[in-house]
Amino acid sequence: MSRWRSLRRWESGLIALLAVVTVVGGITHPALLGIYNLQTMALNNADLALLAIGVAPVIITADIDISIASMLALCGVLMAKLWTDGMDIWLAIAVAIALGAVLGLINGLFVVLLELPALAVTLGTMGAYTGVAFLILGGQAIINLPQSLVTLGSGNIGGTQIPISLVVVLALAAALAFVIHLTSYGRSLFAVGANRQAALFSGIPVVRVRLLAFVIAGVFSALAAVLYVGNYDTAQATIASDQLLPAITAVILGGVSAYGGTGTIPGVVLAVVLLAVLQAALGLAGLSGQAQTIAVGAILIIAIGAGAGINAFTGLRRPRRRAAVSEQLGSG
């Protein structure tokens, strides 16, 4: 119960911080809260949200996948290339999602079955997936994609100002939140992240749980590719190369422990919104893209430090409580 309370407090802190950033940014730059700017934030961060949500289960299991942006690029490139070769765009989307699952499974097989370090493996596959994307398209870009894909990535729900991609992201986030927080697989996921050896002794299929987490990351990277390519109406091997740092930052900032075992999908969604508003505010203030990247990196370090500090504080309080209870029992 104490773990859930701490997570709720973390998410409450995110909401408070988001309110502060929004109010201060809105007062300083009223355009921040304009309809056009809010739409732009939603459209340009939809793929980031899916990357962060998708990689969260991997980090919950105390693994890491830094190939998510490269999987996005490769899936987006393949989807566009299949369409230019005559395949129906919806079938091309289905093939891209299937490819994402396969790429995630490849990562998982190396990490889980061969017991190789996740950081080293996904660093290698990051380069490999980007290389394959370059082999498919070279340095070229595919533009003028089908209107149905462009509408999915950048259009609004008829008669409203609500982006279709926002609804897609929220629906997928809700679906994954249900799986992670309300099913036996989700309970197994947290158990594996908290103590892999204990989970194994408890009869939890640790290998299957970890493999599926990598597959989820691959599928969500492919889904992010669909929204990214649709939003920008372009596909090339270098797309989304700058999305890895913000995605990992959103996961850690959202309350998922870098050491595994804790975190929530709603927390990750809140963190994505916070980063989107913060970067928009910094942009309106005239800060360059490099300065915004520095800010995101600093937030990541602060989030990791804050999480470690909370865990240490919680660990110190538990023995004290146990000692107090023992004293009361002894005196009684």
Map the helices and strands.
Elements: H1 2-28, H2 35-44, H3 46-60, H4 68-84, H5 89-113, H6 118-137, E1 142-143, H7 147-154, H8 164-182, H9 184-194, H10 196-201, H11 206-232, E2 234-235, H12 244-253, H13 265-284, H14 289-331
Antiparallel strand pairs: 1-2
Helix pairs in contact: 1-13, 3-8, 3-11, 3-12, 3-13, 4-5, 4-6, 4-11, 5-6, 5-11, 7-11, 8-9, 9-11, 12-13, 12-14
Main attributes?
332 residues, 1% strand, mainly alpha, globular, 78% helix, ABC transporter involved in vitamin B12 uptake, BtuC
Describe the structure.
The chain has one domain (about 1-25, about 35-325): Orthogonal Bundle (ABC transporter involved in vitamin B12 uptake, BtuC). The model is unreliable at about 320-330 (pLDDT under 50). The chain has helices spanning about 1-30, 35-45, 45-60, 70-85, 90-115, 120-135, 145-155, 165-180, 185-195, 195-200, 205-230, 245-255, 265-285, 290-330, and strands spanning about 140-145, 235. It is mainly alpha-helical. A two-stranded antiparallel ribbon has the order 1-2. The two termini are about 25 Å apart. About 80% of the residues lie in helices and about 0% in strands. It contains 14 helices and two strands; from the N terminus they run ααααααβαααααβααα.
